[in-house]
Amino acid sequence: MATRKSPPKAPVKASAKRARKRVAVRDGEAPEPVDDSLAAMRDAARGCKRCPLWKPATQTVFGEGPDDARVLFIGEQPGDAEDLSGHPFVGPAGKLFDRALAELGLDRAKFYVTNAVKHFKYEVRGKVRLHRSPDASERAACRIWLERELAAVKPDAIVCLGAIAARSVLGSKFRLMAQRGQWQTLADGTRVMATVHPSFVLRQRGDEERHAAYAQFVADLSLLKRGKRGP
Ligand code: SF4
User: Fold this and answer.
1) Which residue has a Cα nearest atom 4 of ligand 1?
2) How far is the CA of 150 from the centre of ligand 1 (A)?
3) Is the distance from the beta carbon of residue 71 to the nearest atom of ligand 1 less than 6 Å?
């Protein structure tokens, strides 16, 4: 009896081969994305163990937004709600950020939003997880992901939310309260501006202080609008 030939196998794409070959990532390592796309970076960052923050966190919270966004926002690190949901800026600070953008008629969906550090660092107090700032070694370890995001999106303008984000782009000598709301230009021509992290507004104790901090935050973000020497 004649044997039927099996159809020729479709060639396996190199990226698929590499994806299948991916081995367990060891502590201290960042997995290589299969290509330069944000989707590949996001996928690779899920397995990152380059610093100890991956262990107690629920998941990596990578940046989100259009691949070709003209403006890229950088925060510090995910908070409790972001850690649980896997999305950046969705907790109370994220809601205040959304409100400020909406007041200015700016559409968050057009922006790429990320953090300098991709895992939530916290300490447990009773039933709550309290934010702790990532230290210098953790920020340095995570920088690889921010650099990859910046290289992929190539924004015209970067807005840093908070001192940690600002120093990750503008250097350790940057003084947030003295230099907030001022456009600077990087060597490659990208415009950069820093303002406070929205959680700074929420942390103000009195109503008056909170209103004033919010008004100044909105005023800083208004520099993104046309006619204000923004992008
Ligand atoms: S915080 Fe950054 S460097 Fe550290 S494990 Fe998470 S993704 Fe990797």
Assistant:
1) 51
2) 17
3) no
Distance 26 CA to ligand 1 centre (A): 12
For 85-128, the pLDDT digits (tens) are 999 999 999 999 999 999 999 999 999 999 999 999 999 999 99
Classify domain 33-223 by CATH number.
3.40.470.10
- pLDDT one-digit tens code per residue, 16-70: 444 445 567 888 888 999 999 999 999 999 999 999 999 999 999 999 999 999 9
d(CA 194, CA 179): 8
Distance between Cα 62 and ligand 1 center (Å): 10
Ligand 1 binding pocket includes 148 (Cβ within 6 Å): no
The domains of the chain are located at: 33-223
